[in-house]
From TrEMBL:
Keywords: Isomerase, Signal. It comes from the Bacteria. InterPro entries: Chalcone_isomerase (IPR016087), Chalcone_isomerase_3-sand (IPR016088), Chalcone_isomerase_sf (IPR036298). GO terms for molecular function: isomerase activity. It comes from Uliginosibacterium silvisoli. Residues 29-195 form the Chalcone isomerase domain. This is Chalcone isomerase family protein. Residues 1-28 form the signal peptide.
Amino acid sequence: MNAGSKRIPFKIVLALLCALSASLPAHALDIAGAHFDDKTSVATSELTLNGAGVRTKLFFKIYAIGLYLPQKTDGADAVLASKGPRRIQIVTLRDLTAEQLTDAFIEALNANHSEQEMSKLAARVERFRATMLSIGKAADKTVIRLDYLPASGTRLTVGNEQKGSDIAGEDFFQALLRIWLGNAPAQADIKEKLAGKN
């Protein structure tokens, strides 16, 4: 060491390292070319990625899906019982029509609910169906978000554009969650991954 050189105090080094790490982007999970940040924000609340997986059909990759919750949760029942803002994020992995996506969602809703449960949700499911169909098509890598905002309900966003108005009721968002986390999930391994069992 040169006689004229000075040591930088440890506290300054530590502060610089902290500042640098804070400026780095959140770590992203990469699944089949779809990116999911570890953290996101919904209704001013920070959410954490609970798990993510890939929906396949006949060996074709259809979409990647991630679930964000206020805190990491283990198990489908615990996830369904969680409260506060939440997000289902879907990234398409091929060109899809809105009709293909919507029909698959409605079929899974029916598979995971009794006729009586579906009758209570019927009007809101129809609104959701009509809003989904208004998308027209979802090109490869389209980002679709289903956010639950306690003050107003479930919000559908495609890219950065909100579609339709929010659909009221926590029970409706819970019903959507059951598409992937119910007793007859769209895909068994997605249920495990969204439930925090990656």
